TrEMBL record:
Coiled coil: none annotated. Keywords: Cell membrane, Membrane, Transmembrane, Transmembrane helix, Transport. GO terms for cellular component: plasma membrane. This is Sugar ABC transporter permease. It is a multi-pass membrane protein. The chain crosses the membrane at residues 65-84, 96-120, 132-151, 172-197, 230-251.
Amino acid sequence: MLHLLLIIGAIVMSGPFIWMFLSAVKPLDQIFAVPPKWIPEPFVWSNFIDSLKAMPFGKAYFNSFYISIIVVASQILTCSMAAYGFAKIKFPGSKVLFILFLSTMMVPMQVTLIPLYLIMDAIGWLNTHASIIIPSALFNAFGVFLLRQFIMGIPKEMEEAAIIDGANPFQVYVKVILPLIKPSLAAFGIFSFIGVWNNFIQPLTFLSSQELYTVPLLLSYFKGLYVTNWALMMAGATISVIPILVVYIIAQRQIIEGITLTGVKG
């Protein structure tokens, strides 16, 4: 019964993706047909090629990839260092500072968007990728919380043994902590990659040149003021999901381990 419920839930959750793929290979007049036409007649595979030709997706994919890689690598570094500091280094006001740090997760991004826009304008970063990379790379409260909970489960004796051998706090972080939290780092890296890859509102706010656009922002240009080519939009959306699916399939074991484990095995 449990597996039956899980199968039903999986089918329901995958429904939008199945509909997106089927719409991507339909003729335009069949997408909104009533009653719905589930199986396209015929399959229009050329929608994928037409979608890639209609917009400069090659440049957009390059932008999304390199932005995602830089942000993910930076967040893994900054969040793991902050998490180690909050979890293992005692300093006055650490608990209060950590609570204040976590409280930023309750502030919607839309609230800080206008102040961030004014800051980017003041330092001359509007219409540059720095306006998307730098703020995201330097701050991620969720990542600090996730990694801190994992680091707190690491036995203190491991740190003490390294300190006795002459290691300083930075060496303990690099040689003891980081190797032990690889599953959580992998899980956080996947979450971060998905978030950065799907980011739409920040590129929409900060970027104005089409050569700087990311994939989600470029997809929105299939929607016109009077006419929307839904077939090409669904084809482009299907293509944009492929990198996320590949990353998840490759690293799904690390994602599960990173979420479920809270320390090292005995």
